[in-house]
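Researcher: Here's a chain I'd like modeled. Treat it as a single chain, no partners, no ligands.
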Amino acid sequence: MNHPSPEQPADVVARLRATFRTGRTKPVAWRTDQLRRLRALLTERGDDLAAALHADLGKGRTEAYRTEIDFTVREIDHTLEHLTGWLRPDPAPVPAHLGADATAWTQYDPLGVVLVIAPWNYPVQLLLAPVVGALAAGNAVVAKPSELAPATSAALAALIPAYLDTDAVAVVEGGVPETTALLAERFDHVFYTGNGTVGRIVMRAAAEHLAPVTLELGGKSPVFVDRDTDLGVVADRLARGKFLNAGQTCVAPDYVLTDPETAGRLETALVQAVQSLFGADPSASPEYGRIINERHFDRLESLLGSGRVAVGGTGDRATRYLAPTVLADVDPDSPVMREEIFGPILPIVTVAGADEAIGFINDRDKPLALYVFSESEETRTRIAAETSSGGLGYGLPLAHLTVSDLPFGGVGESGMGSYHGRYSIETFSHRKAVLAKPLH
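Model: Modeled as a single isolated chain. Structure tokens:
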């Protein structure tokens, strides 16, 4: 029996562009209908997606819903509630020399055909949340799930065509060859989440077509812990933020900066926090995930010698389990401090205080997030004013990206552009200037 060959990337893009040119995706009614259909996919088939996430990453059901499925549903609901207002033309004042009868405004126009390339660590959320914005802005979309999360990729490839308009939304599965072929096509915007190495490849390919690019990258997101804090609360919040998804989170706390005395007390508090969260044997916890593959497991295991193990430090390559680990007495030049960790290892590096911490952060690439635990308003204000990061969190890691009215994105090496809520409309639209002057 002959099976039809999969549609080629050039044909996919041409087909979607033909749909876009008919104007089909532009009415608000079409946009809201697609968003409601995507919401139905998530609510009706959430268990299928949760099972796929468990197969790929060992994610527990609670975490799968909280960080991927329900997260995206909230983004859809927020968008549906505000979309009409966001799209309303924005009047602009007109200079007197154009006459009192002249009017001016800006309006959002859809860009056309958008490519969304997702990573493997949150393979549902980080594919569908950008798709929400692209559809809400009135675009046709090519969605490329990560091949490193194969069960989730297959589930999305099956479900998206069953719920969404297949003439305007397409899923292309595959690895490097398929992604390379996609990037050779002309898109009106390319949205990529991943690492800086591939981000540069994406940007070079997009430059051939002068296509705008959003890069959601990563980096080593620092934490500064001041000596005046409640270390029990700090440790609990750090452990929850760091070890979510086994540390495979782009805005996870990457390393801690604190003074030597506080470091010792924080180490003790972190040991207690890990045990409180995951028990004596985290491998038995249904809510503790696994490393995505053996290559990443080997990379992470090689970093364990960068400091004294305060808790954790064990793993099982066969099951891709790496224990939640805290490293103390870490040298700033050790291997664990040279690259984004992207796993369940939290190094503690000692500094004299806020002054040295600010210098330490500024000597390195601008991070995607920066977290500050301090009761000192002066210290908080100084760090905000004297450092640069994609986002800044006081007292709580990760939470800023759950606020739909805040832009989420990086700066410098941690990315360019932002999305979520209204910022997704801005990303996936052209803000067109319009002036009208009556003829009579």
